[in-house]
Amino acid sequence: MSLTDDIDRLRTDLSAAIAAAADEAALDAVRVSALGKKGSVSALLASLGTMAPEDRRSAGPAINGLKNEVAGLIEAKGSDLRAKALDARLKSERLDITLPVTRPTTATGRIHPISQVWDEITAIFSDMGFTIAEGPDIETDWYNFTALNFPEGHPAREMHDTFFLQPGADGTRKVLRTHTSPVQIRAMKQGNDKPAAPYLTGAVEPPIRIIAPGRTYRHDSDQTHTPMFHQVEGLVIDKSSHIGQLRWVLEEFLKAFFEVDGVKLRFRPSFFPFTEPSMEVDVQCDRSGAEVKIGQGSDWLEILGCGMVHANVLRNCGLDPDVYQGFAWGMGIDRIAMLKYGMNDLRAFFDADKRWLDHYGFRAFDMPTLFGGLSS
Hints:
Radius of gyration: 41 Å
Number of helices: 12
CATH superfamily of the largest domain: Bira Bifunctional Protein, Domain 2
Structural class: alpha+beta
Shape: elongated
CATH topology of the largest domain: BirA Bifunctional Protein, domain 2
Number of domains: 2
Helix content: 25-40%
């Protein structure tokens, strides 16, 4: 068989193999078998070296022509296969734009009501000029009780079902704080970076205007009590602070928090070791329906405790009670969240039930602001 016949036969076989290639992998196998280092066309090219010069002059162009022809067929077939593969992929990945848009994660995530109410409270008091103060959850007995006018063995200590920790190396025991009032002591003793007056003995010179939101702990659990709960307390210390200012602060806070035009408060005498006089505050409401409505009706609802800071507390913090006086108040964040948003069981706040959070939770970007609405 002549070289010409070999070239024609090879051309026919390779053309058929290229045309039959179903995908790019099969086509590449044909390319290797023809043009690879040990391929059939490459073998013909290698045979040129054994031919006589006159035979080489005619065989060379014929074999190179076959090589170029096969390479062209392979390139054309490759382009066709790639186009078909792309078309198939586009069909398989096509989106029906008439379908509903998938909800983004920012729309499905929820802010816990406690976090939302915490931010609402912070927004209101920050607008009034208060700063946010924080303290440790684990406190010394002195900060949690003694500095707040709870003497050792005083019956008032029994008002708090305290979690006591094991005694330290020095024999003293720390506690899980039963209220955020220790933050008030820390604020009066440390305050800010202003230099202390000579008679303040380690305290920082007022005025002091802080709120202290945080976690607190008591050994109690029922529909309206949990072992861990949240409180916010406020403190104002100055030379001319008085109960009239306290009443105004509370009224303005409740109007903004419950988003009503006005509230009526009723102050009743009470007892707290760290304030004198001490008062419990009721807010006017309407309980006739399924929800408690603040700012209307003829009913009253206890909502917080307050009073003028006790002189002993000022002395314990190094402040002269003959120069300074102040007022303080405290309320449960969980309780006012229940009241504002119509929740009936405090324990549900801590059950980690996603269905509950989907119902009561807030969208991630619903940041409470006074100009945009706290709970919009």
